[in-house]
Fold:
Amino acid sequence: MAPQDRTLVFHRRIVVTAPLRCQESGQSEADAAVGRSLQLDYSKVRAYWQRTKPSLLGPYMMEGFGFPASAGRFRFRGEQDAVEEAVQDLRSSISVLDFGSGVGVWTEYFAQRFANVVSVEASPTLYAALKERCSRYPNVATFGSDVLSFEPKGRFGLVFLGGLLMYLNERDVRVVLSRLVPCLEPDAVILCRESTIRHGAKTLQGDYQVAYRSVETYQSIFSAAGFDVVSVEANTAYINVQMSCELIKKWKALVPERFRCLPVVGRLAYWGLRLGYPWNTRLIPWLLARLGREFPSLTNHFFVLRPSVQVAADRRDTSSHGTQLVEEMFENAR
Ligand SMILES: C[S@@+](CC[C@H](N)C(=O)[O-])C[C@H]1O[C@@H](n2cnc3c(N)ncnc32)[C@H](O)[C@@H]1O
Structure:
């Protein structure tokens, strides 16, 4: 592991002050075996999310490990600290766009803090749960739609992309980001939370299709789409739970199904690592890196983006219609 890679895990926050240049995706031979074309099959992505259980654990990819429901709440609370830091300077009067909102835990969180939230989710199963969760918030408009065909109207002070970009091909990541530019308030931020790998990019093929990219790969994509990366922060709550997930995956690979006792072993793995939080999210990967092991294999980061100066200057001037257009979206959602 190169020293620069360790910074991703151990330095909670990396602040980027200069726009980054594009780099090539460093696809290794091992990556190629996982996903030769690096293209996602969207019909499989859709099918996966359609059959996902609409619990807090489901969209967090934490079902089937024997973890308690509190594991989802722990991760959500841990992530709130990072989100809070990213949004603390935003006015409460702004509108928020939550793309790929799952069951809507973040939509609900933003609804309690900001004037309006427009929430878009493609999976009918998760959308139903989102709608139900947010029905008591008159300042939330929900859309059961694919973000690739959804045209946001109005002006948003915050766009939240919580684990969405990893289900989009690189070209579509750029399309979605570029389409957001005219809809951003002058001081708006885009907050992304994505699963990350240490090097390059790879896609998992099969029934669960996903594109994992390194922090550097995301930075290149954001830069190419005309965004400056203001900060990158390791998602320690995710990393903590991910370590338990990877242990349980190893357990599942070693032990026949009838002897797995997941409700017990899953809780032991979860609570064992949870008690050492947050120190073990740095210590364990650091110790294993000394032994030449990358653990956990998957990490997760928050990225705060702003349109680059040039892109911001080219932004279409729709400011006078911004509020009106968001209101129109609320009419359409009814
Ligand atoms: C990892 S989950 C995250 C859910 C939520 N943002 C959160 O943080 O809890 C990813 C979500 O993105 C949704 N999604 C994936 N591709 C999408 C697309 N093209 N359009 C809309 N939603 C999509 C999935 O259905 C799923 O709900």
Q: What stands out?
A: The CA atoms of residues 9 and 185 lie 32 Å apart. Residues 45, 49, 59, 100-102, 105-106, 120-123, 126, 146-148, 162-164, 167 surround S-adenosylmethionine (CB under 6 Å). The chain has one domain: 3-333. Strands lie at 13-15, 95-99, 116-120, 140-143, 156-162, 184-197, 201-204, 210-214, 227-234, 299-307.
